[in-house]
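Q: Here's a chain of 135 amino acids. Please give me its 3D structure as tokens.
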Amino acid sequence: MTAVPPPRVVATEAAEALIAEIRDEHPDILFHQSGGCCDGSSPMCFPTAEFTVGDSDVRLGEVAGVAVWISRPQFEAWRHTQIILDVVPGRGGMFSLDNGRERRFLTRSRAFTGEEMAALDAAERGDDGGGGGGG
């Protein structure tokens, strides 16, 4: 039987608290993991209606009920890591909803174990753990 795959994205308690604060003002939001440029590689938080998810974006999952997206090329580079959404003191990205709150979102990560990667790969292939091969 195939192991249950771990989530590709999780959030710390501090991140969940800041998400709740932002959602008080902007109930429908999403995250997009920035690939660089003006705001570095920060996770960016946007009102859902103001950000268009593209065909080349990959949905990593949800944290605190909020979808988290990443571009496919960046996903391919980071596919072996679990994204950990955290919060640190400072100013958020220029266009991100955490800007002006004196706290900003930060991406941390950890490498998946071999077993976790196998479970993720099987889930992406649609394996049901039912067989093949043998013994």
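Q: Can you summarize the key feature?
A: DSSP finds three helices and seven strands in the chain.
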